[in-house]
Amino acid sequence: MKKRPPLLLIGAGGHAVACIGVVEAEKRFQIAGLVGRKEEVGRRILGYPVLGTDEDLPGLVRKIPHFLIAIGQIKAPILRQKAFDKAGSLGARLPIIRSPFSHVSSKAILRDGTIVMPGVIVQPGVEVGKNCILNSRCLVEHGVNIGDHCHISTGAILNGDVRVGPGSFVGSGAILREGIRLKESSVIPMGAMVRRSTEP
To answer: Are residues 138 and 175 in the same domain?
Structure first.
């Protein structure tokens, strides 16, 4: 049996727990541990050790080349973006992680560091940027373009040809009408019905 390459998760909170489930189900990487806050070092998250903090990243990258940003994103993307940029600057590889219980069209494009959770549907012609979260059961219809560092929350529906600006947050159960444009760093509340663009 081929040995799976090690993967380190940056983040040790609730989103990291969900990420662990996806990585384990995908069976492409072996989780080596997590990076967390100083007070979390030495703890175990679902059996995996918190090995260090951001300060330890240069040494950890030399031992474990594959990383996943497992910091959650509620509204602002800044923490995820900083972690992604720092890991990349140190030479870490940031693979796409995809649940085997999702459907991603072969005609869709996903970029580095994006995670696709269970139940997600991504249709043909979709483009998803770097370091995005497509959370459980969201629907991304044909021709949608999602910028870097976005979080599409649980059960959200993005209808055809929607454009989501970088750093945006779309809340759980929100529905975006076909063809609308969201400006950079948009925040769409849970359950919202979005019928108009926020960008010309």
So the answer is: yes
The per-residue pLDDT for range 170-196, each reduced to its tens digit, is 999 999 999 999 999 999 999 999 999
pLDDT band at 1 (very low <50, low <70, confident <90, very high): low
Is 173 inside a domain boundary? Answer: yes
Task: Check: CB of residue 147 under 8 Å from CB of residue 130.
Answer: no
Question: For the chain, what is the mean pLDDT?
Answer: 96
Same domain for 126 and 110: yes
Q: What is the pLDDT of residue 2?
A: 78
69 token code pair = 């940003």
Boundary residue ending a domain (39, 57, 89): 89
**Who contacts 26 (Cβ-Cβ below 8 Å, separation ≥6)?**
97, 98, 99, 100
What are the backbone angles phi and psi of residue 119, rounded to the nearest 5°?
80, 0
